[in-house]
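Input for the complex:
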Amino acid sequence: MIKADNLKKRYGNIAAVDDVSFAVEKGETFGLLGPNGAGKTTTIQLLCGLLKPDGGTVSLDGKTDPSLVEVRSSLGVVPQALAIYEELSVRQNLRFFGRMYGLSGRQLNERVDDCLEIAGLNKRSNDRASKYSGGMKRRLNMVCSFLHAPPLLLLDEPTVGVDPQSRNLIFDTIETMKNQGRTIIYTTHYMEEAQRLCDRVAILDHGKILDMDSVDNLIKKHGGPSRIEAEFEKLPSPDSIKQYIDSENIQFEESKIRFETSRPMESLAMLNRSGVRFNTLKVQTANLEDVFLNLTGRRLRD
Amino acid sequence: MKKLLFLAVKDMRVLLSDKGNIFWVFGFPVLFALFFGFMYSEAGKGPSGMKIAVVDEDKSEFSSSYISGLESDEALIVVNLNREEAIEQVRKGKVSAAVILNEGFGDGFEALFNSDEPKLEIASDPSRRMESGYLQGLLAKAQFEALGDKFADQEWLRGQIKLWRDEVGGSNALETEQSKLFLNFFDSFDTLIKDSNDGSFSAGFKGDMINFGKLDVSREYEGPISPFQITFPQVLLWGFLMCTSTFAISIVKERTDGTFDRLRIGPLGYAHILGGKGLACFITCIFIVCILFFGAKVIFKMPMGNFPLFFLGLFCTILCFVGLMMFVCTLGRTEQSVGAAGWAMLMIMGMFGGAMMPLAFMPSWLRRFSHFSPVKWGILALEGAIWRDFKFTEMISPCLVLLAIGFTFFLLGVLMLRRQDS
Ligand SMILES: Nc1ncnc2c1ncn2[C@@H]1O[C@H](COP(=O)(O)OP(=O)(O)OP(=O)(O)O)[C@@H](O)[C@H]1O
Ligand SMILES: [Mg+2]
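Predicted:
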């Protein structure tokens, strides 16, 4: 569906995008996860033809120049920065962008109503956009790109600065889009979002893709062991515990034990079968944050 | 094409959503029109209703016809007094000046100008020099009218004109403005007399004299009949300048707000987006014209020379400013910087182009700069159609200059925008 080959873009001394390659299949949701300045926005801008790459190519369904109007029309891009007319009403915004995509008449009205519905903005659709809250503006910003029902969506951090309610609404929308079979590229620096929404994730840092796979595989490869903390009614002898648990380093502390393992479920099942009684159990499996930490030595958000 | 229209409609909606914009684009030119319209109309009339005292010590047939000439002048309110009373009134500031017709005033023209003893005296308040200068002009006019007979003698007349020229030129009681007025008057008068030497007017101006005198004085600005004919093109140009800078800023705003990029990602080319802006700017300019034209026509009864040529001039002028807008929007990266840079550039163009002060009132060295200002050419094209009685062929050069300037700026602007975006 969309393919990036060795994309490069420099700003002066900064390599904003440095030899990035990936391919996204039809119907897939692909995440670009990286901290501030990783090059996510730049990558999106290269994909949609807003920027010309210094090197490499983008191909959209086999066509290689996204700056051509015909090629771009299958794209829906939700920019990171709000790009709406605050002076116009929400409905006027949608109608205007719809018209720019060649919609008119009943089709336009229907699409506008659909998008208002999706964004949950139909109640106050005649108010000026400037009177809306930040989260509402974000939702409007998002649905402005859905009007022409594009098969390929590029979403650049659509949840930045949004309250949990708006965020959930945005997630639901994206999941709906996903279920409709649309191809989605989603950038974020929230690992929870990537974990929840994306079939595959590319970890991006300093313009480079460090690794790219499904979330589970990434965690398996780079996540490191899970951390388990268990409290027992009565602490069994350390030797018997060591028998069941696949871990080098077990800490004992009163009636608690703490350990790290790459096979948490098996260890716990064994313990359970041995007849010990748990008071509390805490399992902290590795996540994309750990993946990032292990790949870069830094946290996603500093 | 439809998309262009929708783009333009959107831009106008955005423009009209801001009261500040509405004021600067529509209100400001109207205020400007009113202010300068009234100012020039006052300047054209001179101080109106100037009160003067007249002392008739000659008591001849000629002096009384002279006085009734003064009384019939709308610019004057004449009271008849004796010498002491009249001077007293001037001293108290109750009248602007006293005109004293000494004995012998009616003896004839030569007596009036050539005798050592002045037959006509003006007593005026030194603090009201401007009015007294103006009065001298009016008195001269009255003399022309009353002394029609003398004008049969062309040689004598031209001699007199030379004399008066020197007098007016050397008089520091006259403001430059007024003395220019009279010098012009004398010039045209002199030419007329010279032209009439071919024989067709061998009888001189006898009989026609009074008509002639009135005609020339009422045409003191050499053309426009109503002061609003001068201000109308200027005000239109101000409106266009405002419109240009407002839309230039709106392009930058779209660029900083990201809506420009959003449109670029959509199935729109560069040409479309900028074309839409241009169209919106064009339509807004037309609106400004409509509003101001309605006002000028209905409220001030401004006469219009030639409608088709007016439309031609308008069309070219507006296109020129649309091109200019495209350039102005590249002068900075933020709304503030474009606002400031654009305003400075347009102000200078406006000033040198005669949008503040008619070019005719400018010193000649300053006028030379005006060729570089599209405002000058716009005003020229519009004036050409409104009151300069331009023929189509005379319209061609300002119109071509306007289109060339507009096209050049448009091209420059688009090239610079593209460079900034790559
Ligand atoms: N127009 C520009 N001029 C100069 N440098 C730029 C420009 N745009 C981006 N950069 C640089 O390129 C790098 C990547 O920026 P980019 O905006 O792609 O990051 P990002 O991953 O989207 O970050 P964020 O999460 O903060 O949005 C950054 O170091 C940034 O400073
Ligand atoms: Mg970004």
